[in-house]
Write a structure and sequence with these properties.
It is a single chain. The protein is of the alpha/beta class. It contains 15 helices and 17 strands. A seven-stranded mixed sheet has the order 4-10-9-8-7-5-6, with helices on both faces. Strand 13 and strand 14 form a beta hairpin. Helix 6 packs parallel to helix 7 and helix 11 packs parallel to helix 14. The longest helix has 21 residues. The protein is globular and about 70 Å long. The model has no long low-confidence stretch (mean pLDDT about 95). The protein binds pyridoxal-5'-phosphate. The site of pyridoxal-5'-phosphate (PLP) has 13 residues, from helix 4.
Length: about 400
């Protein structure tokens, strides 16, 4: 039994919050999620009771923080089924992808090599690769999507079309169209063609069970703030032998065995990637977030997203004036437009009704070529979104206020 009222009571941002004087309906969870009290308390606990640095001291407070960092790393490893030393703390998904780019790709790619992505990727899974191409002479190539999706077949075809692909980098679930890719089969195709596979898990890890070992991807990235955790913390999970071979990206305190006039000996992974003081309060909050998600169950969270998706689509699909770009996605994301209404105007109108959605290109600035529209409105749910909120959203979309009523619904 999914107790939505109980879940909602765990979130301060869901307690009588208003926007524009109306009860807040928050449908921008693909951007960032609310935090339950348990996460906020864990962050506070660091500042109120535990404040010290980790890996640097010989007194109890420091030792306690070493334990906290280890416990969080272990919790994350269990959550996505990796080894503990395969979990690297980063500032978030974006930094994780940059770490693969600068730590792996920069050393391993040369002129003529290719990096395969899709036009539906988020900027964070495009721009680091562009930079690597500038630095190495490698070139970008793009999947021929099938029905706007990165399919197993399209990846297979890409390896026939492009002969020097060394890295394939794709979102597990897209942040605009919400399609899930078959990461396991794609990983297998990449490996049989001598390429590594980087999976951007920003929109999947928060919403469904993700098993790093089972998928057999080489790298997996995600951010805590999209899964009830704090901002400023995330992970790169990588196969240990690859992490060990990679160069460091940031250098400084805490990542070296020693340095002298001869040079530096870095620590083993993951420590060699974690230079400087870690974001300790966030690391504690991240573990609390994972414990919270595990309590509800990732299968249940995914089922809840899909139920709300089906419910919203069933209410919207009969309205000719609403163009939905991903009716068949079945994740927590619906991207749409009202015919003749600019996406940002629609989002502004919804804001006036207390409804938070996102409009534009959602950082996927090549997607306009795929869905043939310059901008969309995106609503995205999470584990605390209620059916009543979907009703309010649908109601306001259909009876969109004077402007929309006058032009489109009369
Ligand atoms: C698919 C995808 N990749 C990467 C990112 C970047 O995440 P962050 O801003 O937390 O680094 C996002 C954020 O929306 C995303 O949706």
């Amino acid at each position: 039994m999914y107790d939505i009222d109980k879940i909602r009571s765990d979130f301060p941002m869901l307690q009588d919050k208003k926007m524009q004087g109306k009860p807040l309906v928050y449908l921008d969870n693909a951007s960032t999620t609310f935090k339950p009290y348990s996460v906020i308390n864990a962050i506070n606990k660091y500042y109120l009771e535990m404040n010290a640095n980790s890996h640097r001291g010989d007194y109890d407070l420091c030792y306690n923080m070493d334990v906290e960092v280890l416990l969080s790393r272990k919790a994350i490893a269990k959550f996505i089924n990796s080894e503990v030393n395969e979990v690297v703390f980063t500032s978030g998904d974006t930094e994780s992808l940059n770490l693969v780019a600068y730590g792996y790709a920069l050393d391993n790619l040369k002129k003529g090599d290719q990096i395969l992505i899709s036009e539906t990727e988020h900027a964070s899974n495009v721009l680091p690769w562009y930079r690597i191409c500038e630095l190495t002479g490698a070139e970008m190539c793009f999947l021929d999507l099938e029905n706007n999706r990165a399919t197993v077949n399209s990846v297979s075809n890409a390896f026939k079309k492009y002969k020097n692909i060394k890295i394939v980098a794709l979102a597990h679930v897209g942040n605009v169209l919400g399609y899930e890719i078959n990461a396991k089969e794609i990983a297998s195709i990449c490996h049989s063609n001598g390429a590594i596979f980087v999976l951007d898990g920003a929109q999947s890890v928060p919403h469904m069970p993700v098993d790093f070992k089972d998928l057999d991807v080489d790298f997996l990235s995600f951010s805590a703030h999209k899964m009830c955790g704090p901002t400023g913390i995330g992970c790169l999970v990588g196969k240990y032998d690859l992490l060990q071979k990679m160069s460091t990206f940031h250098s400084g305190g805490g990542m070296n065995v020693k340095f002298d006039k001869e040079g530096v000996i870095p620590l083993d992974a993951p420590a060699k990637f974690e230079a400087g003081t870690l974001n300790l309060s966030a690391i504690m909050g991240f573990r609390a977030a994972i414990e919270y998600l595990e309590k509800i169950g990732m299968d249940n969270i995914h089922k809840h997203d899909v139920e709300l998706f089906d419910y919203a689509i069933s209410k919207l699909e009969n309205h000719d004036n609403i163009i939905i770009y991903n009716k068949d996605a079945r994740s927590g994301i619906i991207s749409f437009n009202i015919k003749g209404v600019f996406a940002q105007d629609e989002a502004t109108l919804l804001n006036s009704k207390g409804i938070a959605v996102r409009s534009g290109q959602h950082c996927a600035k090549m997607i306009d070529d795929v869905i043939k529209t310059p901008a969309t409105v995106r609503m995205s749910t999470y584990l605390y979104t209620s059916k009543e909120e979907i009703d309010i959203f649908v109601e306001n979309l259909i009876n969109g206020g004077d402007i929309l009523d006058a032009y489109f619904f009369n």
